[in-house]
Write a structure and sequence with these properties.
Layout lengths: L17 H11 L11 E5 L2 E4 L4 E4 L2 H4 L8 H11 L14 H12 L3 E5 L2 H20 L7 E5 L8 H4 L5 H4 L9 E4 L4 H7 L4 E6 L15 H11 L3 E5 L23 E4 L11 E5 L1 H4 L15 H16 L2 H17 L6 E7 L2 E6 L7 H9 L2 E2 L1 E3 L3 E4 L7 H15 L2
Parallel strand pairs: 3-13, 5-6, 5-7, 7-8, 8-9
Antiparallel strand pairs: 1-2, 2-3, 4-10, 9-10, 11-12, 12-15, 14-15
Helix pairs in contact: 3-11, 4-11, 12-14
Length: 414
């Protein structure tokens, strides 16, 4: 009890430097991330500043959560306005923001029903619950025998159920027993998908482009083939668009490149423009009808502050035509990256402004290049050891892309 009355002495944050902040974080925080040693204190548009005053071009966008850029004024205004009225009612009561948010997401996605959550992982967990209950109550799969097909190199989050279908060994190490009911096939392999189908198959859950897996684009036609296979087996087709959706790949949703009609979509990240954790599972009337009051919920999911921010974030994407910008500038940027003459580069791939540069293993890993880029004022991050992910805010200009390209070319050709 004496410890509770002990005076807490905090450091003088006004005199702390970069090393001090890093030391403080390492002393008191869990070691579950491997960040670059840049301590950011301010962001605006595509730019951020560290505590020493150095300016950087953000080429990660918080893993595509900042499609609208840092601190977009329209979203900020909506957040402040709503925060001054009411922030949380819980779903025990209704609020005047949620219905508008539902309607906007429904019209943008082409799917009629929305179930709001907070993190992207929660959205996928919600989808899994919906899939399983649909399998038992609608399709008639025997209880506790529903199967969900997923792909190698998938990434949907880090909850126990989601790591249970990961093929990355580290994500599962030490976290068992894992959740069962998942079947893994190679990404982009329609023949393997057909062979994996059984009477117990409930859904095919897939990223249209694998982000964390290394910016892997499936073969042309794969998504359409997947749709046809799922339809022929009465299986749900669910796209995880948390990273690829909301304009990032040059379409509002990446699956629209093949004119596919899914049974459900998970969204998150840019759904708030970086202001607040907001996610959702969007699906059909038939799938959503399996939920009854008490089946699923979240204290913060669908709160009025989140809904107001989400409405503004979606308005920015539409009003500024961010998918169109991503399509044009993404093609421009990818072409420039492919022109770099470097023995380190194995392949440049992607769609829109979700681009991966895969390096040969002999290059010594992508992280050393990300560190070098940071010294040049460009923030990017490695994924899967040998891939540099380039995903700037979609509000970026061509001149800013040209500036970034000079830095990238310089680092890769040294």
């Amino acid at each position: 009890m004496q410890a509770a009355n002990k005076t807490v002495v905090l450091p003088n944050f006004n005199t702390m430097n970069t090393e001090d902040y890093i030391e403080l974080e390492q002393q008191y925080g869990a070691d579950n991330y491997h960040p670059l040693d840049v301590v950011i204190t301010k962001g605006e548009g595509v730019w951020v500043w560290d505590i020493e005053g150095k300016k950087y071009l953000d080429f990660l966008s918080a893993y595509s959560a900042l499609n609208q850029g840092h601190c977009h004024p329209k979203i900020l205004e909506a957040m402040i306005k709503q925060a001054q009225k009411v922030t949380l009612t819980s779903r025990a009561f209704r609020n005047d923001q949620l219905g508008r948010f539902y309607e906007k997401l429904s019209k943008i996605s082409g799917l009629p029903k929305v179930l709001p959550m907070n993190s992207g992982a929660e959205a996928v967990e919600t989808a899994i619950k919906a899939i399983r209950k649909w399998a038992y109550k609608v399709k008639g799969v025997p209880e506790n025998q529903a199967e969900i097909i997923v792909c190698t190199n998938n990434f949907s989050g880090r909850t126990i159920s989601l790591i249970s279908f990961s093929t990355e060994e580290q994500y599962q190490d030490g976290f068992g027993p894992l959740t069962t009911g998942f079947k893994v096939i190679p990404f982009g392999d329609a023949e393997a998908l057909e062979k994996a189908m059984t009477p117990h198959t409930a859904a095919f859950l897939v990223e249209p482009i694998q982000g964390e897996g290394g910016i892997i684009v499936p073969p042309n036609g794969f998504l359409k083939q997947a749709e046809e296979i799922c339809r022929s087996h009465n299986v749900l087709l669910i796209f995880d668009e948390i990273q690829t959706g909301l304009g990032r790949t040059g379409k509002m949703f990446a699956h629209q490149y093949e004119n596919v009609k899914p049974d459900g979509i998970t969204v998150g990240k840019a759904l708030s423009g970086g202001f607040y954790p907001i996610s959702a599972f969007i699906s059909t009337d038939e799938v959503m009808s399996v939920f009854q009051p008490g089946d699923h919920g979240s204290t913060f999911g669908g709160n009025p502050l989140a809904a107001a921010i989400g409405n503004a974030a979606l308005d920015v994407i539409l009003d500024e035509d961010l998918p169109g910008k991503a399509a044009i500038l993404g093609e421009y940027f990818q072409t420039k990256l492919q022109s770099i003459k470097s023995s380190h580069i194995k392949e440049v791939r992607g769609k829109g402004l979700l681009i991966g540069m895969e390096l040969h293993p002999e290059a010594g890993g992508a992280r050393r290049f990300c560190k070098a880029l940071a010294k040049q004022g460009l923030l990017a991050k490695e994924t899967r050891d040998n891939v540099i992910r380039f995903a700037p805010p979609l509000v970026i200009s061509q001149d800013e892309i040209d500036w970034a390209f000079e830095k990238i070319e310089g680092v890769l050709t040294k």
